[in-house]
Amino acid sequence: MFRRLKEKLSNLKEGFNNLTRAKKIIVVGIIFLNLVGIIFLAVLTYSFLKPAKPVSSEAKNTPVSTEEQKNVPNPLNGVLYTKSEARVWQERIPLAVIIENLASKDVRPQSGLSKADVVYEALAESDITRLMGIYLSNSTELGPVRSLREYYLDWLMESGAAVAFWNSNQCVKNTAASLLGAKNLDQAEGGASAYWRVSDRPNPHNGYSSTDKLWELARSRGVNSLPNIESWQFKEEASPSARPATGKVNVNFTGVNSYSVEWSYDSSANEYKRSNGGAVHTDKINGEQLKTKNVVVEFVKGGAMSYNCGPGVNNRVFETVGEGRVLIFRDGQAVEGTWKKPSRAGRTKFFDKGGQEITLNRGPIWVEVVPVGAGVSYQ
């Protein structure tokens, strides 16, 4: 057998040697191509037949990172933040800052109102309104900072906020100290380090502060932490096709035009833009017109001046606890219902005529607190 094989190989060798050079090249090329084809076919077959590498249970159970998803709501106005963004405001207390609103170039435009999460507006003395911005998510300069009125305490306690103001009558100061303790950041009662006076406005309209200085003051007192806040209910905004083209909300506290408020609805942005006393109301810091996603109009009993703190201390008195009529504007629509506040520190909630809590849009909220009978109209 081996002899025959040897003879065949010898004959092949002799035949190959007798070929011309060109024919030898052709034969070698054919053999080479056949070998390459065989190797390629073997590799391809192996790759198809090789079993797939199993996925480990650890890999299957590894969660997808949600760090950059905006799914953490601000408890004050429902705006969504990423976890890393939310960690900033989750480590500090809300600040309720009393901002002056006298109809004067010495006061308007104010600083920092565009950065507030929630703003309350109510009458102070005479026909003059005063503002209280509540700040959690944004840092800003603030002013002019003025004196506190007692009824603002009832609204700020709903969010567990610290209060910042520049002095007040002794009756209100005593009440704030009693109710808030270390969270009472009165400039005149140990809070001077967080306040200063600016040179471009006359006294007393030149008192200023900043959220950063106030948070530092709260930190030094051991109260700069986020309290447990009962949030309002929020919803997704109406689609563009469901929004009206235009709309207005007019709030006239006492009939004096210099303090009347107009909110003009912008359908494309789905927000309301503020004018005060017939002029566009802006923020001094950025020049932007003040705007909001929600306008809440609370009708409350009272509002008359009263010497409730004794002779010489004449304050307005509002019935903030109980219930009353409310108008809520969002998505260019008006919803009428009832506000209810169970206690001085209890959360004010808003219910429609069917008894369901009214949902708000995520974003800034302005609460206009007006006496029963005040002129409020809308279209």
Helix and strand topology:
Blueprint: H1 2-18, H2 21-49, H3 57-61, E1 72-73, E2 80-81, H4 83-89, E3 95-100, E4 118-123, E5 129-135, E6 141-142, H5 150-156, E7 162-164, H6 170-180, E8 195-197, E9 207-210, H7 211-220, E10 234-235, E11 248-252, E12 261-266, E13 271-276, E14 279-280, E15 291-292, E16 294-300, E17 302-306, E18 315-318, E19 322-330, E20 333-341, E21 349-352, E22 360-361, E23 365-371, E24 375-378
Parallel strand pairs: 3-7, 4-23, 10-22, 16-23
Antiparallel strand pairs: 1-2, 3-5, 4-5, 6-9, 8-9, 11-12, 11-24, 12-13, 13-14, 13-15, 16-19, 17-18, 19-20, 20-21
Please explain how this structure is put together.
- The chain has 379 residues and is of the alpha+beta class.
- It has helices at 2-18, 21-49, 57-61, 83-89, 150-156, 170-180, 211-220, and strands spanning 72-73, 80-81, 95-100, 118-123, 129-135, 141-142, 162-164, 195-197, 207-210, 234-235, 248-252, 261-266, 271-276, 279-280, 291-292, 294-300, 302-306, 315-318, 322-330, 333-341, 349-352, 360-361, 365-371, 375-378.
- It has 2 domains: 2-49; 72-378, YerB-like (YerB-like fold, 3-Layer(bba) Sandwich).
- 23% of the residues lie in helices and 29% in strands.
- Strand 17 and strand 18 (315-318) form a beta hairpin.
